[in-house]
Design a protein that fits this description.
The complex is a heterodimer of chains A (about 400) and B (about 180). Helix content of chain A is about 35%, strand content about 20%. With about 400 residues, chain A is α/β, with parallel strands linked by helices. In chain A, the strands form two sheets. Chain A has a nine-stranded mixed sheet with strand order 3-2-4-7-1-8-11-10-9. A two-stranded antiparallel sheet of chain A has the order 5-6. In chain A, a hairpin with a 4-residue loop joins strand 10 and strand 11. In chain A, helix 6 packs across helix 11. Chain B has one domain. In chain B, the strands form two sheets. Chain B has a five-stranded antiparallel sheet. Chain B has a three-stranded antiparallel sheet with strand order 2-1-3, covered by helices on one side. The mean pLDDT of chain B is about 95.
């Protein structure tokens, strides 16, 4: 089965670049954008004059503390005097950035796109958690004084209940991802830890402990997407964007079953259909599911149909998702290991699939041969799935 | 073209990390506190919902096209994308879908006394609705122990709203003090 939509031009990723991911960085938001964009251009042997259009992604303005965040980031992202757009779907923004870049090229509108994602969470102090207060419904939610961790804890508790997973089973993901990140050049929270370390870390909102959660980060990431003819000129190993998909569910998150992310499945089905993938659990060789919390990776593995419902935690326990396993997930180290500058973290995931499919991930390279990879992000009030399928 | 290996041995990623101490000692950092006050109207559906809370009952909207009941109420059906049909009034009894114990507050400060919060799926005609979406509220729980949450005893438990005294109700979501288990 092949594409269900008319695509004018085939699109490839030809370059990727990241800054360090760290809790606090000296660089301003626009300097971070510039550093990541420069890395991406250099990796593709391109200059800004070779770029037709710019796509920017960044999560809530309140983190950087600047409205017009797309416009603010424009100069650092190389967008001066070029068509530019900023996309935003909360935590799902990171994968929305290459999706938007794809349609710029696939439509025939642009030959090349520089796609930049940036997040600087350190300005909001003492902790950016307070800024999340603005995501809640002002009438029925905010008066209860919610903390963002509540919704994750509620969803994790529901997943544990419905799927029979214990906290130990879920902590395995944090252990895996933090170890995977040990060889990532940008990693903020790489570590060799044990399940006991996770369970003994500070309890924030039970069942969520400190080490179940990704850190707060500053950082930027960028990709270069190009039309097929240009991609083939620029590199011997273009990585093709085979499918894209995204869907939203309602912000009324407490009016839905939280044990399964329906919206991620719908987004994945859209992307797989476009890519001609009928049995993702067999055809996908490597995956970067979104992992701001350890249980989220399992939740998303199921939503991406890479494991049957409620089975991801069992497979994780058997090492199925390890770097040496049958279906390595978050070989980068994910958000738990590399860090979580929100939009930049999603682009980092796509960049990891890009490097893995080019066999350029060095010490992080998975042991099996790879042909198809999927990257996914998630966001807003448990409601957004963004999915990209790549091949080499 | 030379292959460019992206790992720790071959790449030095750009950027200048700072410790907390270094950041606060940097010359010229700018401190800024936004001043923004809002007054939100509560709209067609929620203004009625809040008014009914003050009277001690929970109002929902029903879509007669698909049969869905919305709590909190919406004037339009999210699925049929047509106006919802009628107001219905619920007892407020329901089933706990999930619950957690929070040790931190809104700005991540440690709480002296942990709070228990969760989601209640509300009964329609004294029956638990089935399906992926359902009328429900997210709220605090009373008379529930940390152990009830950790062992899972509370999940599936039957609860009802504990209302504030009538004269203390203000027409907001906290007119329900919390949800508490129904004895026996």
């Amino acid at each position: 089965m092949k594409p269900n939509i008319h695509v004018k031009d085939k699109v490839a990723i030809v370059g990727a670049g990241l800054t360090l991911f760290r809790r606090r960085m000296l660089e301003t938001s626009r300097e971070l954008a510039w550093e990541a964009a420069r890395e991406a251009l250099e990796s593709a042997n391109l200059e800004l004059k070779d770029i037709d259009c710019i796509v920017i992604g960044s999560a809530p303005d309140a983190f950087d503390g600047v409205h017009l965040k797309g416009e603010y980031l424009a100069d650092g992202s190389g967008a001066i005097s070029k068509p530019m757009v900023r996309v935003y779907v909360g935590g799902g923004t990171g994968v929305m950035v290459p999706i938007a870049a794809w349609w710029h090229v696939a439509s025939g509108l642009c030959r090349t796109v520089l796609a930049v994602a940036e997040e600087k969470m350190s300005p909001a102090h003492p902790h950016p958690q307070g800024v999340f207060a603005y995501i809640w419904d002002p009438v029925v939610e905010r008066p209860l004084g919610p903390n963002l961790l509540w919704i994750f804890a509620l969803e994790m508790r529901r997943y544990m209940h419905v799927c029979g997973a214990s906290k130990e089973d879920i902590a395995i993901v944090s252990v895996k991802n933090k170890a995977n990140a040990l060889n990532h050049p940008c990693a903020q929270a790489a570590a060799k830890i044990t399940v006991e370390d996770v369970l003994n870390s500070e309890v924030l909102v039970w069942p969520v402990h400190r080490l179940d959660v990704s850190p707060v980060s500053d950082g930027a990431a960028a990709l270069i997407l190009a039309r097929e003819d240009i991609a083939r000129k620029v590199t011997d190993t273009p990585i093709w964007v085979e499918g894209i998909g995204w869907t939203l569910d309602t912000t009324h998150w407490y009016n839905r079953e939280l044990a399964y992310p329906r919206y991620v499945e719908y987004a994945a089905r859209m992307a797989y259909k476009m890519a001609g993938i009928e049995r993702p659990w067999k055809e996908i060789d490597i995956a970067e599911p979104y992992d701001p919390f350890d249980y989220k990776e399992l939740h998303h593995i199921e939503g991406l149909m890479l494991a049957p419902r409620c089975q991801a935690w069992r497979l994780a326990r058997e090492g199925y998702f390890d770097r040496t396993g049958e279906l390595p997930t978050s070989p980068s180290g994910g958000l738990l290991g590399v860090g979580n500058p929100i939009a930049a973290a999603g682009v980092m995931k796509v960049a990891e699939i890009f490097w893995q499919l080019r066999y350029e991930a060095g010490e992080r390279q998975v042991k099996k041969p790879v042909h198809y990879g999927v990257a996914q992000a998630w966001g807003d009030l448990m409601q957004v799935g963004t999915v990209v399928v790549l091949s080499n | 073209m030379a292959r460019r290996i992206y790992d720790k041995e071959h790449v030095k990623a750009p950027g200048t990390p700072l410790s907390s101490k270094e950041m606060y000692q940097l010359p010229g950092t700018i401190e800024y506190t936004p001043v923004a006050k809002y007054r939100f109207t509560t709209g067609q559906a929620l203004s009625k919902f809040l008014e009914e809370l003050k009277r001690g009952r929970i109002a929902g909207r029903k879509c007669n096209n698909c049969g869905r009941v919305y709590v909190p109420p919406r004037m339009y059906c999210e699925f049929c994308y047509k106006p919802t049909s009628e107001w219905i009034y619920l007892e407020g009894t329901g089933t706990v879908v999930t619950a957690v114990v929070s040790y931190i507050g809104t700005a991540r400060e440690r709480l002296e006394k942990p709070e228990i919060i969760g989601i209640v799926k509300l009964d329609i005609d004294n029956k638990e609705p089935q399906g992926y979406d359902f009328p429900g509220l997210f709220h605090r729980f009373c008379n529930v122990s940390e152990d009830d949450v950790k062992t899972g005893k509370i999940i599936g438990a039957r609860v009802r709203p504990r209302w504030k005294l009538e004269e203390e109700r203000k027409g907001d979501i906290t007119d329900i003090e919390c949800f508490e288990p129904i004895e026996g």
